[in-house]
Each structure stands twice: as C-alpha cells, then as structure tokens.
Design the sequence.
C-alpha cells in the first residue's frame, strides 16, 4: 500500500519551540486516522504542517507528489466573516474553485452537484439563507458540503465536531464514512475518545512526540493515555537547544 | 607688527567704504507682495522688507511657518492690509512675541462691502455683510496706503524722514500718472462692453473707481465652493447681456472659468492679477506694472 | 414639475456634464465602496486624501501647478501607500488599518516637507481638487475611463475578491491569487479616489463611494444586489444634489453629499435589513 503521507523526523513549532517533536511515520492511502492527545499536544499544528501553512523547523513531510488541489482542510475555527452578504449556496459553491477557477462558468451538472451536496449534509431549503443566520451546527454542515464539492483525495479535519449536537455529529460522521468508502485519506483531530473508538480504526496518540500509533484499541490504552497526560504542555522559556535536531 | 597695522588699516578702510556700515537697514515685514511693493517704494534702501505671502501665494488661506514667526519677531514694523484679509495674522503676531509696531495699510480708507451675491440690495438679510479687503485695486486708495506707510516709517526711523518723504512724494506722482492711464483706457471701451467675469470677487474697488463691472461665480475668498445656482446665473447673465470676456486670476481653479467661457461663447482673456504680484519674471512684478498689465488685458478683451 | 426636474439640465451644458461626471463616478466608485465597507475599510478614503500629497508635491516640483502632473503623481503616491500598507499587513502581524495609518501619516509629512522645499506654503491639496461644476472634456474622459476600468477589473477578480473577504484562509489553501487580488482591489480604490479628487474634490469622491454603499446595506442581503443598489443610490444622489444646488444655491459638492446622507438616514430608519424601524413597528414572525 502506498503512503499518502510520510513524516520524516518532522519537527514543527512556533518561535523555535517545538509543538510536534521528531515525528516519524507513514499514513497509508485510504486511511481513516484519528489524531488525539491532550491540549497543546501539537495536533492542529500537525494538520497545518501537512497542508503547507507552516514550514517544518526540521525534517520534512513527503506528500507523495500530491498537488494542492487534492488536499482539503477544515480548520478548527473557521475565520469566516459571517456578516458578509452571501448565502449558503455561494459558500458551498466555493468548493468548486478548482474546476471552475477564476471565470469558469458553473454548468448545469455542477449546479446539481452543489444542490446535492447541500442536501447530503441536511441543509435542504437553506440555499438562499445568509450565512450570518446559520447556527454553529448549520455552518459546520455547510462547510462539509463545501468539502464534498472539493472532491479531495486527502481530507484534513481539525476538531470538526466541537460544540455540535448529536444529530449533526451523526450525520457528518456518516459523511466521513462515505469518504472512507471512496478510498480517500482522512485525518481527523478529535477529543471525543468514544467516537474515536467507535468510528476510527487507526489512531495516533500525540503528546508532541508520538506516544502510540496504530490500531485504535491498541493505542488508546489507559497506560498510553496516562503517559500522554504527563507530558509537558507548556513551552519551556529556557529550553536548551535540542541535541537530536542535527 | 607692520602686518598687523596694515591689516587694521585695511579693516578700517573696508568699514568706511561699506555703505550700510553707518546704520543697519530697518527690518520690516509686509504681509503680502503688493503691500511689500508699496513699502519698498517708500522705504527705499533704508528698509529691509520681508514678505510673508510670496508672489502667486494666496493671502486669504495662508498658513504661516515657524520661519515666519521669527521674521515677525525681528521686525520693527509689521505692515498689514487689514479689512479682514489676513485672518491668520493675529495669532502669528501673538506667537512671535514681536515688539514691532503693527501698521494697518488701509487706515483712513473708506471701505466697501462685499457685493451681495444674491444681487438684491433691497432684501433684508440677517447675516452681516463682509468688508471687501482688496482696497488696493483703487489707485486713490493706494495713495492713502503710501501716506500711512510713510508716516509709520518716519515714526520708527526718524533719521530717515527726508528720504521717506521724498520717496513717498515721488511714488504718489507715479501713481497719479498710472491713474490717468487707467481712466483713459477705460474711456476707450464702449460703455455697453464694460463688464467682465473673473473667478475671484476681488475687483470691487476697481469697479467702483473706474467703471468696469465685475461679476464673479464664487464668493470673496478662494475657500467657498461654487453652487450650480450661481454658475447658472452667471451663464444666463453673460448670454443675456452679451458680456464679452471672462478672466482668470492667478490663484484659483481655471477649469470653472473655462467651462463658463465655453458655454457662453465669451472670450477667455489673459491672466489678471488681483491678490498678489507675479514673480520677478512675470508681467506684474510691481503694483504699477500689475495695474498696467490688468488694464491692458481688460482693454484687449473688451475693445475687439 | 418639468421645470423643476429636467429643464436645468436641458438649458445648461455644465449641468449635463456634472450629471455625467457624477454618473461615471457612481459606476466606478459605488461598487468599490461596497467592498470597502464590507471589509471594514470605510475610513480609508480620508486617509488616502492625505496620502497622495507627496505625489502631488513631486508633480508640483517638476511641473508647477500642472493638474495632470499633480494627479499622476497623486496616483503613484496613492498606489504606493495602499499597496505598501497592504503588503505589510499581509506579511507581518500588523493589521490593515494600523498599517495604512502608519503609511499615510508618513506620506503626508513627506508631502508637506516637499512642498515647503519650494518655498511657498501653498495649499496644494486645495488646488488639486476640482469641482463637479467644471468638468472639461479631459476630466470627463478620465472619469469614464476609471469607471470602465473599475467595472472590468471587478468582474475579473470577482470570485477571489469575494473569497478574500469571506474566508481568506480557504482561498489561501486553494489558490495563490489572494494577495494579487487584494492588491488589485487597493489599486482600484486609489484610482477611483484620486480620479475623484481631481475631478470632483475629496468630499464628493469619498462621499459618493461610501454613503450609498452604507445605505444599500439596509435594503438588501445579497452582494450583487447591494452593489446595484449602491450605484442607483449614488446616481440618484448626484441628480437630486445637483438640482438642490441649482435651486437653492447651496454649494454643489456638499449638496450632493447631503442628499446621499439623507438617503442614508432614511435607510437607517426604514431599511428592512437591520434598520431601526423594527424597533418601532413590530413584524410578526413566521412559523418556521
């Protein structure tokens, strides 16, 4: 099985302080991987590194030649200007950027795709609502619809279910399962361990360094979780230079 | 030792030969170029005149610089026009702390009011009528300016009394000659054609003294913006009364003038100078030159 | 009625020109104004009025009181300030408004310095700004060109511009056109502002850009509709404002802005989208 991603001695961080420290490993294509760990463990940072928003301090990420258009990323706090006067339809349609580009018209087939995506996430009838009138859950559904249209091979989700109700979580989890069925590679940062155990076959327990990586029920043991908790969350103001960096 | 006495001798020679060694020039300030010209003519070599608003500058909206404050502080006399021309001067004088005398050039002149823009003298208005500060446009008034300047210089520098009186008398003679020239030139213009449009309502005194009617699209100073009503009025008037010429003066936006001229078919006359002299190379570098230039421009446009 | 509303424009060429000029400014400026407002850059217009001074001053140094030279210099200075501030904001932690403030203040000081080099304390900005009643052929052409360029450019960068406003991170993740789009938009803004200053004066240029946009916000919820409405309100302000100046003798520029302001006030009070009227006239809600 080819690797969609390979981390080679990867260190990512801010201001020389590592948030992800010497990570090694492969993410297989078609994997459904949950990334878990305590706060400050570097989970969001890892996703940012994968999508290219952050350059590695040392090491590298081998994306197996994947181009920008094939990676979709849903950040933790979407910095969307809710007061901007567009409606759900237009927001979702943004997902077609790569096929429509600057001027490309949106043909009838694509219009159907947009409507279908909106329907799939359960937002039927919301096409013409301003995005400013959506609840948190509805906005998240809309963003998933956009992701749907992006048709990406690698999908990165950072805490997609934070503060959502059970219905929404269930619906969106079903969508993730569908993507998994389509052999897309999905990496999701999550806090809800029960959800991880029930829906995610593979997990990476991160506490800056990889504590455990593999099958979920082998990773999420009480021992491992305790170990991860112990690892320091705070940046050391006077940390020495890392000897292993060479 | 010989070298030293030779040096001392040379020094004494130099001092003796130098014309200004006996006394320093009287430092005076004039607020703008036209006034400065009067002062130079009366004061001659005995005065060093500094001008605040330079040629091609706008005395209505002038903003003094720190250098100006120093100039004013060092001056023995500050000559100003008065009649509301220099709204910025009081603060400058206070800020400079000058001990010089402040002399108002227009003292003793009978002031005119600004022309009422609505043209109705019978209308009752609650607002007060502003005084027209451009008193120098009448040569008769300039004679009064000259006398005021002469008296002020004598008061500050009694030693120069004879020179000031001579200079003033000479200047008054030249002004009389100029006045005759202007009146003759106006007489040559057909009475029906003695009207002109300019951008700046600065010729009120000229109009009253010499009989040419001046109509302006804007208010007195260059700060007030035109209204469509005023512009329409001017255009109607020009068309109805077949006013022959429009003139641009050297300060404000020429585009408005050109638009009016274009729409009425009136002739665009040459530049006339109203609030300041031109620079040295220009046709109006002294007051007398300025008046001659202006009347020539009016004649040329109105007698063709 | 005809006499009141139409005949001034029939009778006087300068009135027709003024109307055409206001119309052109509305076409180019109102859409830019809508985006400025939505991006919280509404005060940029005033900052730009000062920022262009050194450009005009350099033009003045070389060519004297030549309006073309000063305007060209103004555009160069304006674009430099806008683009420079924009680039700094994007590549450092500085926010857009602070970046622009820093740039325009330095620019203004530089301009005053350059002017004082020439010796006279002439109020350059005063001279640089025109009046809507004196639009000669060259100026009308300039306004028309700016309107055309603005509309074409906006059509070109529409998608990335909207994305830039709504979800800049998403745009960054799918395309590299975010930065150039933003800079093109800033350049358009400068073009409309400086052209507007040159032709019509600061008050009118900034006012026609921002007031109709702000008013449109209260009537429609969708971007394209907002832009169209802003243009319509801008044209209406121009037309009624000119009539006001004509019949009452009020100065032309302020009269137009006054009308725009009244339209805005009306929108605040009675506009269905977030206006004040819902406080006074309760509306019954829907079932779902």
Sequence:
């Amino acid at each position: 099985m080819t690797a969609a991603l390979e981390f080679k001695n990867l260190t990512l961080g801010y201001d020389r302080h590592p948030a992800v420290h010497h990570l090694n490993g492969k993410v297989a294509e078609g994997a459904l991987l949950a990334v878990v760990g305590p706060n400050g463990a570097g989970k969001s940072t890892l996703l940012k590194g994968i999508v290219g928003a952050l350059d590695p301090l040392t090491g590298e990420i081998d994306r197996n030649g994947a181009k920008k258009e094939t990676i979709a990323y849903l950040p933790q706090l979407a910095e969307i200007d809710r007061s901007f006067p567009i409606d759900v339809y237009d927001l979702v349609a943004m997902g077609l950027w790569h096929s429509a580009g600057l001027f490309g018209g949106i043909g009838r087939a694509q219009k159907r795709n947009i409507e279908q995506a909106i329907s799939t996430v359960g937002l039927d009838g919301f096409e013409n609502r301003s995005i400013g009138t959506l609840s948190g859950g509805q906005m998240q559904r809309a963003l998933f619809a956009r992701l749907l249209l992006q048709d990406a091979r690698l999908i990165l989700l950072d805490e997609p279910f934070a503060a959502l109700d059970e219905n929404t979580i269930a619906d969106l989890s079903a969508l993730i399962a569908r993507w998994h069925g389509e052999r897309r590679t999905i990496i999701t940062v999550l806090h809800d361990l029960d959800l991880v155990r029930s829906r995610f076959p593979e997990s990476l327990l991160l506490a800056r360094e990889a504590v455990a990586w593999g099958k979920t029920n082998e990773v999420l043991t009480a021992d491992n979780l305790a170990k991860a908790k112990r690892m320091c969350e705070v940046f050391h103001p006077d940390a020495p230079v890392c000897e292993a960096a060479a | 030792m010989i070298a030293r006495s030779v040096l001392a001798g040379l020094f004494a020679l130099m001092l003796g030969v130098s014309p200004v060694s006996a006394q320093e020039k009287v430092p005076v300030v004039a607020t703008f170029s036209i006034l400065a010209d009067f002062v130079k003519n009366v004061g001659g070599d005995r005065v060093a005149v500094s001008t605040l608003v330079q040629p091609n500058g706008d005395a209505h909206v002038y903003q003094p610089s720190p250098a100006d404050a120093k100039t004013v502080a060092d001056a023995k006399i500050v000559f100003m026009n008065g009649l509301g021309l220099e709204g910025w001067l009081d603060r400058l004088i206070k800020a400079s702390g000058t001990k010089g005398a402040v002399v108002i050039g227009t003292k003793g002149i009978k002031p005119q009011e600004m022309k009422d823009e609505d043209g109705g003298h019978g209308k009752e208005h609650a607002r007060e009528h502003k005084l027209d500060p451009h008193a120098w446009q009448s040569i008769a008034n300039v004679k009064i300016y000259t006398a005021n300047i002469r008296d002020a210089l004598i008061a500050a520098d009694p030693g120069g009394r004879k020179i000031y009186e001579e200079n003033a008398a000479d200047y008054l003679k030249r002004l009389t000659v100029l006045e005759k020239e202007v009146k003759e030139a106006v007489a040559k213009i057909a009475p029906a054609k003695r009207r002109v449009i300019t951008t700046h309502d600065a010729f009120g005194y000229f109009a009253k003294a010499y009989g040419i009617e001046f109509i302006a699209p804007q208010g007195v100073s260059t700060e007030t913006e035109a209204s469509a009503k005023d512009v329409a009025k001017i255009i109607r008037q020009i068309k109805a009364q077949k006013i022959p010429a429009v003139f641009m003066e050297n300060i404000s936006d020429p585009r408005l003038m050109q638009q009016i001229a274009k729409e009425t078919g009136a002739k665009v006359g040459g530049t006339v100078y109203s609030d300041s002299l031109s620079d040295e190379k220009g046709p109006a570098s002294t007051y007398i030159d300025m008046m001659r230039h202006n009347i020539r421009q009016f004649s040329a446009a109105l007698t063709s | 009625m005809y006499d009141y509303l139409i005949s001034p424009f029939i009778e006087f060429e300068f009135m027709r020109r003024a109307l055409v000029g206001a119309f052109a400014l509305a076409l180019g400026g109102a859409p830019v104004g809508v985006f400025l407002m939505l991006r919280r850059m509404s005060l940029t217009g005033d900052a730009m009025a000062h920022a262009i001074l050194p450009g005009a001053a350099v033009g003045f140094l070389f060519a004297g009181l030549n309006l073309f030279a000063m305007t060209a210099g103004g555009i160069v200075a304006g674009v430099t300030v806008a683009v420079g501030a924009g680039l700094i904001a994007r590549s450092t932690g500085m926010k857009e408004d602070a970046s622009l403030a820093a740039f325009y203040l330095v620019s203004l000081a530089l301009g005053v310095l350059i002017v004082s080099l020439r010796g006279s304390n002439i109020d350059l900005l005063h001279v640089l700004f025109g009046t809507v009643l004196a639009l000669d052929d060259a100026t009308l052409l300039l306004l028309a060109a700016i309107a055309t360029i603005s509309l074409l450019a906006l059509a070109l960068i529409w998608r990335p511009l909207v994305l830039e406003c709504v979800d800049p991170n998403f745009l960054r993740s799918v395309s590299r056109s975010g930065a150039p789009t933003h800079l093109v938009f800033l350049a358009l803004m400068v073009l409309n502002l400086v052209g507007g200053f040159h032709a019509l004066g600061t008050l009118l240029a900034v006012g026609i850009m921002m007031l109709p946009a702000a008013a449109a916000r209260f009537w429609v919820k969708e971007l394209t509709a907002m832009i169209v409405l802003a243009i319509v309100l801008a044209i209406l302000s121009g037309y009624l404002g000119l009539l006001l100046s004509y019949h009452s003798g009020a100065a032309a520029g302020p009269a137009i802005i006054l009308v725009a302001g009244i339209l805005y006030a009306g929108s605040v009070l009675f506009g269905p989208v977030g206006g004040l009227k819902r406080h006074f006239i309760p509306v019954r809600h829907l079932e779902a």
Summary: The radius of gyration of chain B is 22 Å. Residues 17-21, 117-127, 218-223 of chain B have pLDDT under 50 and may be disordered.
